Amino acid sequence: xxxxxxxxITLVGGFLLLFAIIFIALPGTVIILPIALxxxxxxxxxxxxxxxxxxxxxxxxxxxxxxxxxxxxxK
Length: 75
Hints:
By secondary structure, the protein is mostly helical. Helix content is 79%, strand content 0%. It has one domain. It is elongated and about 60 Å long.
């Protein structure tokens, strides 16, 4: 049962990760990358590390976007 769970997580997460990497240039597919990593992080330590990196990057980009929007609104 545990091996079936791990296999399922690996297949689904791996497919989404591959899909996100192949179509990274298309708008909207970038959001699939953290989702795929989150799925893989259920079973793999390397994916957990990348999820933490992605969380930091998303936090920084959200802060930059907030500053940009505030600057744009004040004009």
